[in-house]
Amino acid sequence: MSSKTNHKAQNAVSDNWVQMLGSYDPLRAIERKRRIKKLLPLIIASLLIIIAGIILLLTRSSKAEDVEGVFESAAEKEAIKTLGDIVPVEKPFAERIDTVVNGHLMALFIPHNATPRLFVGNPDDKLRQSSILAFQAADIRADNKEILGEFVLNGKQLTRGIAKRGYCAIIDGNITVGVGEKPPLLGEAIDCGGYFFRQYPLVDEGTPVDNKPKGKTIRRALCSRQGQTFVAVSSGNESFHDFAQILAALGIENAIYICGGEEAYGWAVDEEGNLDQFGHDGYVTKYENESYIIWE
Predict the structure, then answer these.
(1) 3 state SS of 158
(2) pLDDT at position 30, please?
């Protein structure tokens, strides 16, 4: 550096500046800033190259992990199959499958070659002989002993109420299980002489739904999975929360609660004609407005 240049730099420092040995040197600081400015583009470019390399490495790793394995693939394909045996039997019957889901014992009742409908009143011998599967559907109000929630029987709306968002609609023998306050299927069931009732929602499009009651008892659910409708029953006492989680783990897409507990009545007739009753044998209704979903 020339003496002339050095003299200009020194003039930039205050006349009163007293520099101690080993302290701040303004000339060196100016030179250091110049070097940093020259190196800054190289530093930024190097950082960008490093970041791009990390992203590329992570992307390749995730793609490698996403490769489908032979056994996992086979298990997934097996899981989405319809439940129960595909049997070349034309007569109506109910198939029972006992299974374990996440350590919880469950019984699945699958109707074959049968059409669902709702029934209100006393399930007498005549009804049991004509149907192959039946479970209590809607609950009874504690105050006036009427059916709790919206209920449509043969196109006639018997009761109203949307406190429970889960619903079942049966129109022209086709059953739909879902969740919603104002489903269009309610009006269609009335117009077409169909059936409709409400209960607690348990699974909504594969997602478990929590409900207010927190006790534990035998739980029952009307389920829809892969276009198949069936009833799932817990073998032990379960909370609403745990029961909904179990159903979702089973791959159920939509499910609503149906009357549970040990007292709730129902029956199933297997392929050989054997009658399996739930609740009390020789059951007599406690309330005249007890409702049932039956397949016959």
Answers:
(1) strand
(2) 66
Whole-structure pTM value: 0.72
Q: Which two tokens stand for residue 201?
A: 């929602």
Structure tokens at 60: 């390749």
Write down the mean pLDDT value for the chain.
82
How many CB atoms are closer than 10 A to CB 217?
A: 18
Compute the average pLDDT of residues 193-215: 94
- Count the Cβ atoms, other than its own, within 10 Å of residue 113: 12
- Give residue 283's pLDDT: 64
Specify the 3-state DSSP secondary structure of 4: helix
Give the Cα separation of 12 and 30 in Å (integer): 11
Whole-angstrom Cα distance, residue 237 to residue 162?
27
**CB proximity list for 8: less than 8 A, separation 6 or greater:** none
What DSSP string runs through 125-155?
HHHHHH-SEEEE-S-B-TTT-PBSS-EEETT
Q: Go through the chain and tell me how many residues it has.
A: 296
Q: Are strands 174-179 and 166-171 parallel, antiparallel or unpaired?
A: antiparallel
- Closest among 160, 144, 187, 164 to 289, alpha carbons compared: 144
Helix (H, G, I), strand (E, B) or coil at 103: coil
Q: Are 195 and 138 in contact (CB under 8 A)?
A: no
The answer, yes or no, to whether residue 13 has pLDDT greater than 70, is no
In the predicted model, is pLDDT for residue 62 greater than 60? no
The 10 Å Cβ neighbour count of residue 46 is: 11
Contact 230, 111 (CB under 8 A): yes
User: Which position has the token pair 């409900």?
Assistant: 211
Taking the C-alpha atoms of residue 212 and residue 261, their distance in angstroms, rounded to an integer, is 17
Give how far the C-alpha of residue 230 lies from the chain's centroid of Cα atoms, to the nearest Å: 16
